[in-house]
Design brief:
Elements: H1 3-20, H2 27-41, E1 47-54, E2 57-64, E3 71-72, H3 77-85, E4 89-91, E5 109-116, E6 122-130, H4 138-148
Antiparallel strand pairs: 1-2, 1-6, 2-3, 4-5, 5-6
Length: 151
C-alpha cells in the first residue's frame, strides 16, 4: 500500500477509535477494540495484539489472528527489544533478527510499539506480524504510536 494511502487509513482508524474508546476507561477493553479494528482494516496484518508487562513478564493480552505465545521468554525477541529501547521496532525480515520468537512460523516481518504510562514507563506493547517481508515502515510506526496513545 502506498505510504500516503496508508497514512490516511491510519488517520481514519485513529478517528474511529477515538470515538469508540470513550465508552470505557478499561485498558483491556480498549486493547481488544484496537486489536480487532486494526486486524480487520489493515490487510497486511496477519496477527495483531498486545503483550502486557506483568510482574516482569510479557503476557499475551487481547489479540486477533492465529494462536499466540502466552508468555514471551524474558529478554528475547522483538517485543522485549521494544520494551528495552522504549521505542517502536520495525523488523523487515524476522529470520534475520537474532533471538526472534516464532509464535507462528508463517510470520515474515513484524512491528512492535510500546505503550507508556503518563510517567513514561512501558506497561505493554502492540505487536503486529505480517506474512510478507518488509511489510512495515515508519508510516506504520507513526500511525500505530498515535493509536496506542488512545489506550
Amino acid at each position: 500500500m502506498p505510504s500516503q494511502r496508508k497514512k490516511e487509513r491510519y488517520g481514519r482508524i485513529h478517528d474511529q477509535l477515538r470515538g469508540l474508546l470513550v465508552k470505557t476507561p478499561d485498558p483491556i477493553a480498549r486493547m481488544a477494540t484496537v486489536a480487532a479494528l486494526l486486524f480487520h482494516k489493515m490487510e497486511h496484518f496477519d496477527w495483531c495484539g498486545f503483550y502486557r508487562l506483568l510482574e516482569g513478564e510479557l503476557v499475551v493480552g487481547p489479540y486477533q489472528g492465529p494462536l499466540a505465545c502466552q508468555v514471551l521468554q524474558k529478554g528475547k525477541g522483538i517485543c522485549w527489544a521494544a520494551v528495552g529501547q522504549r521505542e517502536a521496532v520495525v523488523v523487515p525480515d524476522v529470520s534475520r533478527f537474532l533471538g526472534h520468537i516464532a509464535c507462528d512460523t508463517r510470520s515474515r516481518s513484524e512491528i512492535v510499539v510500546p505503550l507508556k504510562t503518563a510517567a513514561d514507563e512501558v506497561w505493554a506493547v502492540l505487536d503486529v506480524d505480517s506474512r510478507s517481508l518488509d511489510a512495515f515502515d515508519e508510516t506504520d510506526a507513526d500511525g500505530l504510536r498515535r493509536i496506542v496513545s488512545l489506550i
